[in-house]
Amino acid sequence: MKIGKDKVRFYYGIFLTVFTIAVGVLLVAETASVYYGADVSPYLSPSLHTKSTVVLVVFLVWLAAVIGGFVLTFFFPESGKGKPYVDHTYTLRRLKARTPDCGEEDFLAAEARANKWDKTRLYLAIVAGAILLLCAAMCVVRLAVGIDRSGKAVQEVLVLLKGMLPWLACALVSALVLTAVDCFALSAALRSRKELLVLGRGFPVRERKKGWYENEKVRFWTVTGARIAVAVLAVSFIVFGIVNGETPGVLAKAINVCLECIGIG
Amino acid sequence: MDKDDRLLETEEPSEQNENIQEELPKDGENSSPGEKETPKKKGKFRAWWQAHKPTRRRIVQVYVALLTNANIKGFFSGKIYKGATKYVCTPGLNCYSCPGAVGACPLGSLQNAFASSNIKTPLFMLGIILLYGLLFARTVCGWLCPVGLGQELLYKIPTPKVKKSRFTRVLSYLKYVILIVFVVAIPLLLAGTPTPAFCKFICPAGTIGGAIPLLLNPTNANMLDGLGGLFTWKFIVLVVLAVGSIFIFRFFCRFFCPLGALYGFFNKIALLGVKLDETKCTDCGLCVSHCKMDIRKVGDHECINCGECIDVCPAKAISWKGSKLFLHKNAVEVSAPVTEQAIDLKEGVVLAAAATANAEAKNSDPIPAISVQNPETGTKKKGKGKAFWIRLAAWCTAGAVLVGALVYYNFIHKESKPALPPLQVGDVCYDFTLEGYNGESFTLSQHRGKIVVINFWGTWCGPCVAELPAFEEIRSEFSDKVELVAVHSFNLAETAVPFLEKNGWTAWGAIFLQDTSDTSNNDVNVLLGGGGEAYPYTVIVDEEGVVAFTRLNELGGEILRAEIEKLLK
């Protein structure tokens, strides 16, 4: 039975995916067991050597599988790039730009429905923004109010993060749910706009007024002005910083091993 | 089928793609079946090489990674570079605890600047970030960041990939949250106890670039007993990010990197990067569909300025900023309208129709298609032009700089060696004399008969500042038998007295001393086996002057108490 090249690559890709995730899970599990399996100095315990050897062997086998995958791409090269990513908000924008200038009753009714979906999406965006701002404000409040400066930084930061986690989780869940809802709203908006194109067939395209920001000169001078302002700020901050004696602080941190940054201590 | 009908066919782009792909020869199929075996293999290798050869961007990424980690001998010696080039921040993420690093990390330095904001306003680091933002913005991510290079190489592993979507676009805002909370808020609010929260809890560069090379070196065996929960957490984060990068393009960059978030604010005004010519743009969306980042538009805050969209744009509306100064203008061939050109590019009828629709909406003729060719070379000229010589000079200069850096850091620059062999547990402790801040001097040998706890610390070091109060409590509990000596590093020595006065530590019974301001590796920290490059470092000397215990990292009150009680028994 002749096996297609695409199928070979596909199944090998699936195998490598599963293998990679398994190796990742093994690494995470072994790392956690090293820490939770010892009372004192977990990374000095004798069992670390055995665990490290097991993990190393598995890792080397995985590496061999990866190299095998690269060799496979030489003999069975990719035949297509798959579906391109289509951003439907782009499509909606192009459909809006094509809105016909028609005064018929059924067209106007369809346009009212299309505008209603646009408003729905706008309200969704406002609600999402409000929820995210609220969660961000609560995180900052928890940080500012809850910090104990007695010096036990690690414990306090971890306690604070635990206090902030519900708000962070709330922000993430809200963002994902509202995005999902917006997908449905976008599909409905696209259908409504297409309906307009069908109903307004034969009519000319409605003229669109240009915003002030679409003026090339305004944009040029805005960008140039911003560049000059940032350049002046940057140079003056650097000069004042050097005069103020801040550079030894940069050096002091850079020439000493930051033990907490690399996970020690 | 007219233009409106094409625009309405947004439901079946996949069918269109399949139809188009059927018309084109598939890879691996030879158009001339009668060709011999050897030319077929050559053609296959050539095709593989064309698909996989390193691009200019990849060469630049590898070059910058080598240049910013030119201290290769550090990986063998287990020591970090401590020279003057560490005043300079590299533009990309590169942990300064990496043995190879020759510059400072901008994010780590920024967090430390915020953490020291109660002493000095962090103007210098803010100025550096503004300067890099103005010059490069997210071109750093696409061209200059070693962490970005690592992720792109991991992404090449041939597994199925998770494509971008509206959800990944939403998740890409998580890095702004990390920027505000971990990089700005926590260091600022905990300014008394310096805590670079992002470096400490999230950054994978510290684990892969710093911890692993240092711990694998036998000379750093004394670091192993300091590994605990924090290392476990950071290693797990590293594994998750590495595995994620295999399946999701630039997993860390897109969702977690606060440096990318910071540079993203400058993308529109940066001097380097890609730009979109709105007058030429037909809004076909090919650039967005081709790009693997979560962009809405070329050059927005998610764009890493990799330039891969430049060749994709059929209207040649995307170019490099400043390209008119250095490169030839593109040659233009007026051929078929954009619609047919877009079909030839296999991206579906709907996008091509949209191009025509937009052109009509602008009441202009369809933009004449430009043959897809390298925008930098344009038409072939006879002989070598000015651009060739400029490019050659640039490559030669870059090569000379890299070779010079490698030679300097690995062969010319030498760290001075300690005058005496490093101290071990069981050795008689070297005697030393240091000056205190009240003018009195301290000599170790004059304190025989008491247990002396010598702690080397620094005001910039969070764990040092965190553990000393606990040490003072234990000292006051065993005050007749234990002496606590806190030796401040010669780095930032001038900050010690203001820090002690501000926190009321001058009222303690502990003896505060200043280490010698000697950069030739002969300060007391090095003398007593600390290496002089990591803080905190604690040495416990028993009543006979013999070293009973050493710990290179945060010790904590409980372990100190246990060790003292062991000695007193």
Can you characterise this structure?
The complex is a heterodimer of chains A (265) and B (569). Chain A is an all-alpha fold. Helices cover 74% and strands 0% of the residues of chain A. Chain A has helices at residues 5-36, 47-75, 88-97, 105-146, 153-199, 216-243, 247-254. In chain A, helix 1 runs antiparallel to helix 2 and helix 3 packs parallel to helix 5. Chain B is α+β, with helices and mostly antiparallel strands and 569 residues long. Helices cover 45% and strands 7% of the residues of chain B. Chain B is built from 25 helices and nine strands. Chain B has helices at 3-8, 13-23, 37-52, 56-68, 73-77, 106-115, 123-135, 139-144, 146-155, 166-171, 174-189, 197-201, 204-216, 229-247, 251-255, 258-264, 286-290, 323-326, 338-344, 349-361, 386-412, 462-477, 496-503, 524-527, 557-568, and strands at 274-276, 318-320, 433-436, 441-443, 451-457, 482-488, 511-514, 537-541, 547-552. Chain B has a seven-stranded mixed sheet with strand order 4-3-7-6-5-8-9, with helices on one face. Chain B has a two-stranded antiparallel sheet with strand order 1-2. In chain B, helix 11 (174-189) packs across helix 16 (258-264), helix 13 (204-216) crosses helix 14 (229-247) and helix 19 (338-344) packs antiparallel against helix 20. At the A-B interface, helix 1, helix 2, helix 3, helix 4 and helix 5 of A face helix 1, helix 2, helix 3, helix 6 and helix 7 of B.
